[in-house]
Amino acid sequence: MSDLRTQDAASGSSSGSRRRTWAELLAGRVERQLRGSGRGHRLQDSAVHLLRRHLNLDDLLLEVEGPACKTLCLNQLVDPEASANLSSSFIGSALRDQASRLGVPVAVLSSQTVASSIMQICSSNGEPTHRVLLNAEQRKKLSSVLEVAQYLLAHSMFSRFSFCQELREVQNFLLLEAVWHLHVQNIVSLQELLESHADTQAIVAWLFRDLCLLCEQMEVSTQHTDIAQAMLSDFVQLFVLRGFQQISDPRRNMEPERMAQLAVAVLRRMLIFALEALATGLQDESPVYKAVKCWFGMFCGHTFGRMISTDCPKRFFSHTLTQVLTHKPVLKVSDAVRLQRDWSFAKTHPLLSSLYRRLFVMLSPEELIGHLEEVLGTHEVNWQHVLSCVSTLVICSSEAQQLVQDWVTRLLARAFESCDLDSMVTAFLVVRQAALEGPSVFPSYADWFQASFGSTRGFHSGSKKTLVFLFKFLSDLVPFEAPRYMQVHILYPPLVPSKYRSLLTDYVTLAKTRLADLKVSVENMGLYEDLSSAKDVTEPHSQAHQDVEKAIAVFEHTGKVPVAVMEASIFRRPYYMSHFLPALLTPRVLPRTPDSRAALIESLRRADKIPPSLYSTYCQACSSAAEKKPENAALGTKMEAICVEPLGLLAAALRELRTTMTDPTQYDVFSAQMAVVSERLSSALGLGEEDGSFEESQVQLNIFSPELEPQDQQVADLLLTSFCQNLIVASGFAPPDRQGPWAAHFVTSLCGRRLLPIVLTRLCQLLRHQGPSLSASHVLGLAALVIHLGERRPAVPEVHVASPAPVKSLPLPEFLSSLLTLRTAEASLFCLKFCTAAISYSLCKSSSQSKDILCSCLSPALMKKFQFILFRLLSEARGPLSQEDTAGPPWKLLCLPSADWQRAALCLWKQRTFQELLQEKEFHLTYRDWLQLELEIQPEFDSLSDMERWDFHQWAIHEHFLLKPSEAGGCDGDMQTACTILVDVLIDFCQSLRSYNCLENSDLVLSCTGNRDIFSRLQEMAADLEQGPVAPQRCSPSQGHFLFRVFRRRLQALASGWDVAARLQRQQELLVYRWILLGLPPSILVGSPQCKQPATPDCTEFFHLVNSELRNFCCHGSALTHDITVHFFRGLLNTCSQSRDPSLTANLILTTCQTECPIVVTSALLWWPRLEPELHTRWRRCFQGPLPQELQRLWEAQLFGKSCLSSDLASPPPGPAWVSAAALHFAIQQAEETSIKSQLEKLNCQSEELLVVLFFFSLMGLLSSHLTPHAVDSLKAVDICAEILRCLDKRKVSWLVLFQLTDTDGGLGQVLLRLAPDPYVRLLPFAFYSLLSYFDEDAFIREDAFLRVAVDMYLKLICLFVTGETSAVSALAGRSQELQGQGDPVGLIIKARHFLLQSIPRCPEKSFANMAELLATSGHCDPEVSAALLSRHQAVSDDDLYQEPHLF
Predict the structure, then answer these.
(1) Cα separation of 802 and 556, whole Å?
(2) Do 266 and 211 touch, CB atoms closer than 8 A?
(3) Rounded mean pLDDT of 670-689?
(4) Which runs of consecutive H residues, i.e. helices, occur in 750-900?
(5) Is 945 helix (H, G, I), strand (E, B) or coil?
(6) What is the β-pairing status of strands 698-702 and 798-802?
(7) Facing residues of 911 across strands?
(8) Which of 548, 637, 678, 1299 is least buried, going by the fewest C-beta atoms within 10 A?
(9) What's the pTM?
């Protein structure tokens, strides 16, 4: 200092003026300060500022105290080794001493010392300056410094203001983590530090730079992720709280406005940086991408969850959304119309869509719609951001669809009310954008446009002004919009009054011109093009191939030509003829068994929808292709390679979807990824129009042989596997009731028109045919899937099960339950697992919901199958419950790797909620339900042994269901009721079995499935009724036997008529009845003797069944089948054994048969050779006497028939005559002789009645030869009839009465009608004219009634031909060429007509009596014959007028 002063003095003298010394200068300043008041304070402040700016504290301390004081420098004290023995109090004391020596406040000295130490820490180790985080050593040193600072602050030895001023000077070298530690440990808050800086722009730039670096380093560094996450979260919270806090009380101290502006500026800068980065295109894993991803990640509940009030975050989120929507509004409306198809959710950058989803969390859907409406009404917007926001909203919010529709409705109302173009533009853009996301979240554009403008309720229909406004708007869109939208406007035009039709015509012309410029034709549109997708229009030939595949798929599932194809053949014929048919009729090698494509082509050909020349060319080309090997043998490999990429993309999207299952409650995250899956799914299926509207009201599936195309099966497997895996992952984090709606959303995507049949077919393959081989995870996943599919019942069509004989349509839950079979032990165990999993999942998922909702989720069939299989396999469940379990459903047990399914099933059975559900009537396992399920079991593959099964049946019938009240599904203790239900179920089962397997032989019913044991139970119960104490009341005359009551009720419910379908249905039913009757005691047919005398059993019910039904179906011409005949006579013998007078009882029964049921007698005559030995043996063994008189008479009739055909004299015929005639007829049929002329001569002395009845039986034989396979040869039958007819004509016996039998006839006529099946009686006209060549030429003259009968038979024959009833006999012409056309109904009609036209002129006057009445009812069948009859009748009448009267 002395040297310096010497130098200054020398220099001053040399200059000619003396410099004042340091002391003089100080003295002068003191004098000036004394002159002015208040200058002392200012001087002190200036000095402190000067020291703070230029003083090196270490040098100062060293200069004042010497080298020893150097140990008190904080940059050395923070070293752990140096400060090990120094406490904060010692450091504070040292600082206080130094401040006292320097004459400065200790707080100022401490603040500068701490700030200096922090700066040295941040700049240590020579690391690069572009960082914001401390390393471990720096963090340790900073912790020591902050500990000292906290001590100083606690003892009022630290100045925050001074500290902020010190840090402000070196802020660019200050690491952001150090600032955060100062803020967190309350040394100095970030707000104080920021407000101490005068340059707002500089501080914003510093924070923006460091926040970006922090976001980048967060994604890169894994060592300090927690600290970085906490830093960013705290900073964002502070900025949001200070920038968006609303001061409600103006009297309180307000936060500085500068901090609010600064916080908003930093947040805005970060958002703009992110949006611009997204606009320029980011590469994944680039530093900027990582920074943007990290910053958007801060918009979550975790960041703002610790804030007391949600008002600030909500205002911040609204502000952010506004900034996003209004960022760089450079796009025009025309650009939005042209480009919006590229702004769908799947095409929006994932980071931007994630930002939308995070913003949506804090705002409700209603608030979002309101905010969108407000921003669009008050700001210039970025249309890309607005429309991508709309897409995200409808995807991620289940409530958005209706809210958006309501918003659009308001926009349209406002637009048409004041011709507001902005509202109109917004409405159309929003609707089109929402429609891009598919019909599962929003209606298609075509549907919306048609609903909005296709009726008189549209907004446009108010006046001409609104119509002009609409078409002006649509016309303005034409140059910019995609062709799809113009096609919608043309195909679904607005409804316009006729007087304003020119407006529509002008627009259509303009749109078609634009489409022509774009080389798009409305006429060449595909049948299944999605008009709402706004995708590029495909070439007609390319679209035609897609249409063909779609049409084949629809035809395969519905069995009908698709409506779209039929409409196109009429209304869009150019496309249909030029593109669709050529694509459909592509030449190929035709399969041996016609496939769906061939069936569709044949259906179109029959409907005259394929020109004959084109079809002929197609057939020739296919024939040529069959002679050559296909040149494109590698086509399948090529197509497979093409399909790999879409399937790979779909699999990748599904894998990404599985990662969202770690938190399944994040519905927006899942929905976003699900939208990507939907887009990949459409690509994998090869279709662009996965719409949700079903063309048919049913989905038709073949459950017996379900087949899928390889591509479809791969897609279905990917989806089902994904669902199962997602469920397992989600269940590992949360139970079903806390997993959110992810599963329901997933299932909704499976219910499209194209995809649902694929999924159901694959489920059918897995559950019905491969169930036992499924793993536990598959069982759990598919069970949950079935529950969610059942919940979609109102939105999906019914399933029509295709089989050889289709059954009724099933709702989706019932169809899914029907896939669980019980035929084998493995299938039963799988059914138990599946039902346990499904019910447990449903109970757990709906644990907090009402019972009604729970009942709607569960299928009654599923609940009943669970009860059935549980009773069957687990005997512990058959007893009463000791106590109900209050624990939850065993879903958690089932998710364990080593799940005990039987234990879980018992746990579910004992669960209280489940038992409460069983109180609902729809979930009762009734006796009928139990029988239906038990009949499915195949005993040879049953898990129960024969004895175990018998024990189970005994428990179920006698202990469980028999005693239960009918309200609970039981039988009220009534054995008859139990038998009645069993018979009813057994018949239904046999009918369904016969339908499914196309059985023709009823004997096969027993061997098809496990109904043998159930039928044995029926036999046991029927025997108990016959022999038990309730026997006297079982057959009361008023009610009849329970078995016949069931038969009568079921027959009344069947369709009546003689069409083929009704007859076959009735025949199948009766075959089952016969099988049941033959398996039960024969006494049921005859009944027991009555107590009164004579002891006549009551056979009325059996006789009625025979006369009304069995006679028509279960017979051989004029006789019943052998089995039912033998069964009746066994019953007769049993009844006789219970009678006091067996012979009298037998005679009474058989006498009654002759009048009430004569076909039983003729049946005995037919089967007498096989029946007689048993009758003789049993009668002699039981009664030790000769046969009763009526049985003896049957033997005599049999003997008469044989004697007539032998060379011996004929024995006398027993009475009545029809019995003898029947015996003779059967003998003739069984004889080998082809001619019976000599045998008939023996009957010359017999009564005429016997010959007439014999002729009747021969007519029945003739018809039987035409109708019954393996019957008597038709030629022989004709010869027999001809010989008998000659015999009758020879004896001048009239036989015409046989063709005039009616129900009102008494005596012999009534007997004959009961002997002939009704179809045979209806075919008597055919038999009549089959014998035309054998008629006597003088028959018209000899018998007055011949003409009327001949005409009547002719007209009836024509009616039979018209109604198709002669089709059964028309096959005879092809079967027997020897008949020379006699079996051909057409040839027969021609011959009969020729015969009548030739005979009518020769008929006498008496032949035309009552002819007018006949022609009045049926004369229209042949006008020419009717005219000939009337003309001849008139001519005869005129001749009578001119004849002279015979007076004498």
Answers:
(1) 10
(2) yes
(3) 74
(4) 755-763, 776-791, 812-818, 825-845, 851-857, 860-873, 891-894
(5) coil
(6) parallel
(7) 885
(8) 637
(9) 0.67
